[in-house]
Design a protein that fits this description.
The protein contains 13 helices and 21 strands. It has 394 residues and is an alpha/beta fold. It has 2 domains: 228 residues, 3-Layer(bba) Sandwich (FAD/NAD(P)-binding domain); 124 residues, D-Amino Acid Oxidase, subunit A, domain 2 (D-Amino Acid Oxidase, Chain A, domain 2, 2-Layer Sandwich), CATH 3.30.9. Bound molecules: adenosine-5-diphosphoribose and P-hydroxybenzoic acid.
Length: 394
Amino acid sequence: MTTTTRRTAVAVIGAGPAGLLLGHLLRAEGVDCVVIERQSADYVLSRIRAGVLEQGTVGLMERLGLDARLKAEGLPHGGFNLADGERLIRIDVAALTGQCVTVYGQTELTRDLMDAAAPRGLEVIYEAGEVALHDIDSDAPFVTYARDGLAQRIDARIIVGCDGFHGPSRQAIPASVGRAFERVYPFGWLGILADVAPCNHELIYANHERGFALASMRSATRSRYYVDVPLTERIEDWSDDRIWDELAVRLGPEAAARMTRGPAIEKSIAPLRSFVFEPMRHGSLLLCGDSAHIVPPTGAKGLNLAASDVHYAAEALTAFFRHNDADAIAGYSARALARVWKSERFSWSLTKLMHRFPDDGPFERRMQVAELDYIASSEAAQRAIAENYVGLPV
Ligand code: APR
Ligand code: PHB
C-alpha cells in the first residue's frame, strides 16, 4: 500500500480540550501543527465531562479571542459549599482569593475550540485509525495513521500526546524510563444531567452517611448531579427516580426541598482514579492532559490541569521553534509536574474528606468530622481550599 507523507513542526495526537487548545495556541504563535483525532467531531462532542473552569483556563480562551460565548453563557461562581449532613460550610472563594471560577461545560469549551479551528487555519484530522508514534527518541519522529483506507504519514519535529488516558502516546515511552503513580478508588460517580433548574446557585459537595453527593449545573435551566456508588453497580439498575431519591437524602432536606426532578438527558457511572506518569517528556514526545495524569473529579481539576500543561507546552514549543531554545523543551516535564502534583494532592484530599470509604472505621470518620470542623472555624483553612479550588498560579 502506498503511504502519503507530509511534514509539519508539531503533530498533536488527540482533539479533546488539550489537543485543540494546544493547536490554537501554536497557530496563534505561528508554529505549524496538525491535530490527529481517532473519533469523529460529533463523537468528541457527545462526551459529557466536568464544567468548572479556573481563571487561568478562562484566561487562555481570552488570549485566543475565543471567550465570547464563555463570557455570555458561563456562570461566574464566587463560592461553593461543603455539606456534612448537619451544616453547610460556604467557601467564599471570591473574598478569600479575589478570583472566581466559571461554570461552563467542557463540552461547550471543546465546541468553541472546534468551531474556530477551520476559520483560523488549524487543521484537525478526524476519524484517523491506527494512530502510531515512531522514532520519538530521534529528532525526526513521525506519526502514521489510516484514513479512508489509505495509509498516511506525518513527519514532525515534535509530537505532543493529548490523547487521553487510553491513547497510544504514553505507551510509546519505554517502560525503563517511565514511572506511573496510581491510586484507584473503591467507588465511582454516577452522574445525571437533566433540564431542570439547579437546587442551589452554587455547587454543594456533600458527605452524608449514605455516601457522597454533588449538586452542580451547566446553566440556570440545566443541572448536573452525582452520587458515589460501589464499582459493582450497573447503570441499568438506577432509574431516574432512584437517583433523585438518593440525591434528596444525601444533599439534605434544604437542598432536597429546592431540587426539581426531571428525565435524565444522560446518566453514566465513571470510576475515580488518581494517576501521574513521569516524565511528561521523552525525546521528541511531550504529554499533556489526561495522557499523563488523571485526577478524581472532586476538585474539578481535570480540564484545568490539561489547560495548564498546554500553556507550558505552547511556551516551550514557541521558544524552541522561534529561538531554537532546546532547554525550554527539556524543562517542560518538571515545570508541568510541579503543578500537576499539587492538583493531584488537592483532588485526593477533597476526595478523602468528602467520601465514605468502605474500609474506613470510626477513627477515619472522626478525622473527617474534625477536618470539617476545622475548615468551618478557620479562615486560614478556608483560604487554603479556596486558593486550590480557584487554581494555583501557572
Ligand atoms: N489516536 C488519536 N486520538 C486519540 C487516540 C488515538 N489512538 N486515543 C484517544 N484519542 C483522542 C480521544 O478520542 C479524545 O478525543 O484523544 C482525545 C483525548 O481527549 P480527553 O480524553 O478529553 O483528554 P484531554 O484533552 O487531556 O482532556 C483533559 O478533559 O476529558 C477530560 O477528564 C478529562 O477533564 C479532563 C480533560
Ligand atoms: C460538574 O459539573 O460536572 C462537576 C462540577 C464539579 C466537580 C466535578 C464535576 O468537582
